[in-house]
Every structure is written in C-alpha cells, then in structure tokens.
C-alpha cells in the first residue's frame, strides 16, 4: 500500500513538472513574440472571416461589375505589411470597424438584401472586432489615411447618391475586396509568427 502511494505521488509530481515546464515555455515564447503574436484571435480568424465573406457574397444578387469612384487603397495594405504585428492588428481591427460603420448608414433600407444573412454578417464582424480588442489596446488607432479613405467612400458612394440600391451594391463589392485583403494580411502575420517560433534563439556568452 505504501509503495502504491509512493508511486502515485511520484507520477503526480512528474505530471505537474511537465505542466510547469510547458507553461514556462509558453510564457517565455509569448514574452519573446509579444502579446500580439500570441493573440488567441489569430487561430480563429479564418473561420470568422470565411463566414463574413460568404455572407457578404450571398446576401444579395451577384456582386456588381460597376467600378467604385473611390480608388481601392492597395497601397495602404502594401505599406502596413512593413510594420510591426501590433500595428497590423490595429489596422485590421480599425478596418473592420470602419466597414461596419458603413452599414449603419440610415438609407440601408433601400436595398433588398436577405435580412437574416445581413444580420449574421454584421454579428460576425462584431465578433471579429471584439476578438481583436483582446489583442490590442482600444486606445491605439491606425494611420489617418485609412479613415480618410472610408470617409471618401461613404461620401461619394452613399451620401451623394442618397443611398440608392446601386450605391449599396458598390459598398458590398468593396467590402468583399477589403475582407479578401484582410484575410491575406492575417495569413502573412501567421506565416511570420511560425517563422519566429521556428527560429532558434542564440544566446551570447
């Protein structure tokens, strides 16, 4: 009986030791990679992103082929890739917020979209924003150029047209383009995270 208790205690000790080693390794990894890279949201983004992109695609007729009067800001997406991960996450969070704000426009009732799919799209965007707010400070904001772009898009596409159905279809098309670009940006963050985790740390003596 005593030997059994001694063996059980030894097994528990070994088990606890392995857990502590694992937790210590995770803590050191997160300390090295910064909280943004250890953000749990990154592991769930694709699922939420796929839901949003599918809903925006299917909540109305096929996407319009009309071109927006406001040029798509590919340069902003290119430039943000050369910044720190935290800045990239802030950019993604702010982009989602600014996209969501477009759909809070008063004249949305003029467009005949599937109400259930549209509501689910908006809820999916909200979840992504909430998840990102656990990774980066709500006090940090992206470069002002991003907000200027969305102000121009809203003014020239919605305000100047009175929120006509064709204008909303342009907003939906532009939304899909932005969500695709944000998905690519997250993929590049994940790739950078994997590289940093696989790179051995060299200690100076």
UniProtKB/TrEMBL annotation:
GO terms for biological process: defense response to virus; immune response. It comes from Lates calcarifer. One of its GO terms (molecular function) is cytokine activity. GO terms for cellular component: extracellular space. The chain crosses the membrane at residues 12-37. The gene is LOC127140816. Its main location: secreted. It holds the Pfam family Interferon. It is found in: Secreted. Belongs to the alpha/beta interferon family. The keyword Chloroplast does not apply. This is Interferon a3-like. Keywords: Antiviral defense, Cytokine, Disulfide bond, Membrane, Secreted, Signal, Transmembrane, Transmembrane helix. The keyword Nucleotide-binding does not apply.
């Amino acid at each position: 009986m005593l030997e059994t208790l001694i063996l059980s205690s030894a097994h528990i000790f070994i088990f606890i030791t392995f857990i502590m080693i694992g937790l210590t390794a995770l803590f050191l990894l997160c300390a090295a990679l910064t909280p943004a890279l250890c953000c749990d949201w990154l592991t769930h983004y694709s699922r939420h992103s796929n839901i949003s992109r599918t809903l925006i695609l299917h909540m109305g007729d096929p996407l319009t082929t009309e071109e927006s009067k406001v040029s798509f800001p590919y340069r902003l997406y290119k430039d943000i890739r050369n910044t720190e991960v935290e800045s990239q996450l802030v950019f993604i969070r702010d982009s989602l917020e600014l996209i969501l704000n477009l759909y809070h426009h008063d004249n949305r009732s003029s467009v005949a979209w599937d109400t259930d799919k549209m509501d689910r799209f908006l809820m999916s965007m909200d979840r992504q924003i909430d998840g990102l707010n656990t990774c980066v400070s709500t006090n940090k904001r992206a470069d002002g150029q991003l907000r200027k772009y969305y102000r121009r898009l809203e003014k020239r596409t919605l305000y100047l047209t009175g929120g006509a159905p064709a204008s909303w279809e342009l907003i939906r098309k532009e939304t899909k383009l932005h969500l695709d670009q944000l998905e690519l940006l997250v993929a590049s963050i994940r790739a950078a995270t994997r590289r940093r985790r696989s790179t051995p740390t060299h200690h100076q003596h």
